[in-house]
Structures are given as structure tokens and as C-alpha cells.
Amino acid sequence: MASGTNSTYAKLLSTQQQLDQCVPTQQHSTDGNHTRLNKYMNSFSAVQNNATPFPLVKFVAKSLLPTDFGDFNLFVYQDREGKEQLAIVRGNVAGKTSVLTRLHSECMTGDVFKSQRCDCGDQLQNALRKVEEEKSGVILYLRQEGRGIGLTNKIKAYELQEQGYNTVQANLMLGLPVDARDYSIGLAILQDLGVQSIRLLTNNPAKLEAFSNSLVKVVERVPLQIRPNEHNVAYLTTKRDVTGHYLNHLQNV
């Protein structure tokens, strides 16, 4: 595994040690967090380093998508669980190399309501702008709300963050994975679209790892950095310091 990923593991373990020093409340016990963290780390390794076989995805619909950022084509796919997964495409990407691509996980609070607690909505809008500027590219909108734990659990984690815990600690205290996302559906959609290689819009090392065994190759990582605000600066620094995100613009934070 890449050295950057090993560094991420070390940071997670350090976070777990800090969490074990927390005094558990009646509702949120820290018992068993080592087990949960180990399970997360094992699943992280398995998912990110084994991009095949792909889950079945079926193309079901397509239409034009005129937006404030430009005109796109919207492709709808259905996965094995019946969830609708989206590909927002600019231009003809079939057979193309170095296609500007974003794998964006659903975030209702950020994408729809413009919450300032995260950088998700700003990242989605910036990705749309960048793809439109190039007149070619793909944005995959993957239905894995709250890094895969769902909307209700995300809001429960927000409650804990309001008590002073960071995003990683909050998930663990709820008995949830730090990150439950699976990018293999996104890889399958890119293959179906005929994309040969991509320039990946991401700050997340886990997304790069997801392509390590994929037929679709990453030829460049393109940073997607958002200016922090008073509501998300702790969230962003946790991503930098604990989960290893590439956020060099936060050096002075």
C-alpha cells in the first residue's frame, strides 16, 4: 500500500488513542472503538485496493441538463441495490484519455442547502465550472450520503461535533465507520462511458487508491481546494491531519 495511505492509518490510530481518553457518556460509549477502527482499516484496504469485480450497474436514462454552469448530458444508472447513480457529462468522452473527472458523494446539506459545515457544495460547483471551462469531462454523483453512513447518522454525528468531537471521533463514538464509501460503482460507470484515463479532481488519497487496480487509469490529480470558513475550518483540518487529505492551502490554519 502507498506510503500516504500508511500515514493515514497512523493518524487514525492516533485519533483512536485520543478517543479512548474521552469520558464516555451514557448515550455514546467508546467501548469497542478499537474493534470498529480495525474493521474500518481492514475494509479501507480491501475496498481501495480491489476495484474489481465491479458491482452491476445498468444504464437506464439520459437527457440534456442545462445549468447555470453550462449545458451537460445527464446519464442515470441503476446499481444492484436499485439506487440511481448519476453521471454529468460534458462533451464526447468515449475513448478519450485524460478526461477531467470528479467522483462526488451525495451531500444533501451541502449540495442542496449550501451548508457551511463542509466543503461539499463548493466542491461540486467548482467541479462543474472546471468541466465547463474545458468543454469536456465527467462528474459522477454517487449516492453515499454522509461518507456512506446516511443522512440520519450524519446529523447525529453533527450533534457530537457540536460537543467538541471531530468528525472522525463522532463517527466512531456512534459505532460507525470513519468512511464507508465504495467507489467501485463510479469506476464501473466510467468504463461504461468508455473513458480510458482521467485527471481526477480530488484532495482525497482514498479516491486515488480506488483506481489502483482499475482499467481506468489516473494520469493526474487535480486539486479542488476550497477557502475555509468559520463553520468548516475544524472539519477541513481534521481531513488534513487525520484522514490525510491533500489540503496544503490550510498550512497556516
State the helical fraction.
25-40%
Biggest beta-sheet profile: 7 strands, mixed
Instruction: Give the mean pLDDT.
Output: 82
Identify the overall geometry.
globular
Q: What is the H/E string?
A: HHEEEEHHEHHHEHEH
Q: Cα distance, first to last residue?
A: 29 Å
Strand coverage percent? 15-25%
Number of domains: 1
Unreliable stretches: 1-6, 20-54
Physical arrangement of strands within the biggest beta sheet: 1-2-3-5-4-6-7
In CATH, the topology is named: Rossmann fold
SS-derived structural category: alpha/beta
What does this structure look like?
- The longest helix is centred in the N-terminal third of the chain and has 18 residues, at 3-20.
- The chain has helices at residues 3-20, 33-48, 108-112, 120-134, 151-161, 167-173, 184-193, 205-210, 233-241; strands at 57-66, 71-79, 84-90, 99-105, 137-142, 197-201, 217-222.
- It has nine helices and seven strands, in the order H-H-E-E-E-E-H-H-E-H-H-H-E-H-E-H.
- The protein is globular and about 50 Å long.
- Helix 1 packs antiparallel against helix 2.
- Strand 2 (71-79) and strand 3 (84-90) form a beta hairpin.
- The chain has a single domain, classed as Rossmann fold (3-Layer(aba) Sandwich).
- The protein is α/β, with parallel strands linked by helices.
- The protein starts with a helix and ends in a 12-residue tail after the last helix.
- It has a seven-stranded mixed β-sheet.
